[in-house]
Amino acid sequence: MNRTTDLIALEEHRGAHNYHPLPVVLAEGEGAWVTDTEGRRYLDWLSAYSAVNFGHRHPKLVAAARDQLDRLTLASRAFHTDQLGPFCDELADLCGMDAVLPMNTGAEAVETAVKAARRWGYTRKGVPADRARIAVFDGNFHGRTTTVVGFSTDRDARAHYGPFAPGFDVVPYGDTAALREAIGPDTVAVLLEPVQGEAGVVMPPAGWLADVRELCSAENVLMIADEIQSGLGRTGHTFACEREQVRPDLYLLGKALGGGIVPVSAVAADREVMDVFTPGSHGSTFGGNPLAAAVGREVVAMLGTGEWQHRARDLGKHLESALAGLDRSKVAAIRVCGLWAGVDLAEPGPSAREVCERMAEQGVLCKETHRTTVRIAPPLVIEPTEIDRGVAALAEALEG
Fold this sequence. Notes:
four-stranded mixed beta sheet; 37% helix
């Protein structure tokens, strides 16, 4: 047995079996590349589901973390710290919102938004107590908490976890008429992903986000945009909502906000919504901690230049062109949004898992979603030649 085999066996023996990783054990990373315990290098085509948008160990982000590690890492929200105010200020400006509530994980941001929407509905809109409803969409992925999986349409995500929280109405994604029908007097919010990442980089019909915005405004309902995967440069814009010049009432952020170093998430909203929270009504020991805030501030500063958004747009065009050369007899559909793609495989044929395993053997790491979709989300630092290398590995893997 080699070290890789030993480590995989140890994880299987002592760890919970809630993931099914590819059989590689990573030990180092830099830029768009990672190295396993045997010294073999791989091109990272997943970016930890967009959490590593700026590449592994980006020097600016590592420097921000190291500097803060030498000063203060945690104080809890029982006290003020010198990083939290500036972090909230700078992130609020990036979002074009009044205020920010920092948390740790994406799921926590979603739970926070659910709380905010319900409390806003009761205290601002006048919805009777315990009757608030939130419209959500099929194919959604908003996290793994029991509240969230309760309105998921993924059987694996929800099986044997009930009973689930009431108050959610599941609507077909991209269907304006169905959403209009679902909104009633007790509806307080519409929760959506501008691009459904876990579903396979699924984009709604053109104009749908604008339709949702118009409908929410007309019905006095909050529009909540879950940009945890799609936000912060991935789609070629700071936020995917900007593809249709739409401003939601709440942005939900995470993943890339922590620079691939620490978990950081946030809800951004105007005061009309954010001020439903009062002391003691919501909180988190680690939310907004100085280390996370310092890294998050550097992420915001990097995005403030516009460089990363432009890079994702330009490289996305290159990726789309390269993917267009795949054997279409083996591919059912290709969807590209910035530097983000879903490739649906034709059936009969190899599963997406089998294709990803074959790609790993060629030194390219990506991950399937569901049975037939290969999703592609390389770090924004990737070079065009590296994109070509990844597409070539995918083409070869499709051949078997």
